[in-house]
Amino acid sequence: MASVDRKIEIAPIDGTPVKRMFWSIISDYGLLTGVCELVDNAIDLWNRGKRRRPLSIVVDLNVQQQTISVRDNAGGLPRDGLHLLVTPGGSANDPDAEVIGIFGVGSKRAGVALGENVEIKTRHSRGDSFEIDITKAWLEDDVWEMPAYQIPDFEPNTTQVVISHLRKPIGPAGVEAVRQHLAETYSGFLGPECTIDVNGEPLTPVGFDNWAYPPGFEPVRVALICDLGQSKPIQAKITAGLIRDREAAEGNYGVYFYLNGRLVAKELKTRDVGYFVSTEAGVPHPDASLCRVIVELNGPARLMPWNSSKSQVDFGHEAYLCIRPSLIQLASRFSKISRHLKNDREDGVFKYDAGIIQDVDPEEVTSAGRIILPPLPKLNKSQLEKLKARNKAVLQGKPWTLGMVEVFGAVDAIGRQKLETGNRIALILLDSTFEIALKEYIVHEDTLFPPKVYNEAKLSQIFARRYLVLNEIKAKVAIPEDVLRLCQHYYGIRNKLVHERATVDVTASDVANYRQVVGRLLKTLFGLQI
To answer: What is the mean pLDDT of residues 91-111?
Structure first.
């Protein structure tokens, strides 16, 4: 039975967070995400200071001493800002600014996640220098007050975080992983005005815009404005195309996300971005592995679809849903192109290393986010086109072989027609090609068949009887006996069709067999691949 008959206020409860929250997030951070949080802080502080001076971030991973140090000259913190280093949720960043950190938890939990002792020194401008230490003893105590120290001055505008008693050891492989990860994650910042050194070596930015520009299949770029009803809209840019830096042993294709200039996710190939859906980008496969889509979102930090550690994209976020139709459309388009060019990558894709990205007119983007794109050029090559592409080098060096190759395209075309006498027509074409091949070989191989000897009279004489032609060629070229035997067999059938009263049946298997035999002869004589 309730003792009151209306809502009344009672003594307030204590909502102060307990320090166990730090322990609960240790598993959320690894070496890469932890170091990135400290770099994010430096970049945000540099941006808040209007980038008045070049930013230098120095990362030192000491494998011998097992310590991590991150030092920057982004500006440092004054005495009245020291609480931001410890207070959960404390952040000086404007959530409506194009910054990286707004949650106010990153540097605190990143340091704790990496090691038991975190020593932070800072000096704002040329003011006093201060230090705070986040230790295991402090974390195990329920008291939130933290000792702060004034220390002898060190470099102005500098903050240095040193983490020791690491929870997981670091080795040379970890150092290299950090170097690569930072070079990729901050490629949009690295340059003359922003440098990052890892163990004494400056980083070179590593981007992923290594586009190929095959004619008709150039990269496409679309600009979108996502108005989420807040103070500022998000500016979105999606670029998709075929790539030239594909590594067969790696999964370096798919979708990449840069939020406010920072790489948040790469090589995504999930249902959320159109993969594993047959009507979209389809199942990830080496055939489709030349497709890359780069998404760049810039706007208020609080509207970015990222998690607090900046390591994942929130696919349920309205900012992502705004760009999703365009992203999936482009991922599907270039995955399809990649599949169709899978057998022609060297000549059809990789050699086109320069060109122009095709910008989509904003008017070509519907209110639903769909892009009105021109239809793709013909992707399905005919069998004849494939034959020509396969024999491109031979056709260029021996143009007289073109007619022989095209006959195979004609034979295939006849096979697709509903002709009652189609097999007879195909067999006669193949046999004529056999004889033409012999003639062309004698005419053009003048070192084996000198024109003074093999003049018009000589050619007329030997071509009056096919066995005479074959005898001349067999004396100079090793033709497999089974090829000669089968050719003689089908030559006999051809003669019955053309010269004799009796009519013989020609089956589809006859055509297929003779096609293979003539193809073998062309390979022996000219190097053609039929």
So the answer is: 62
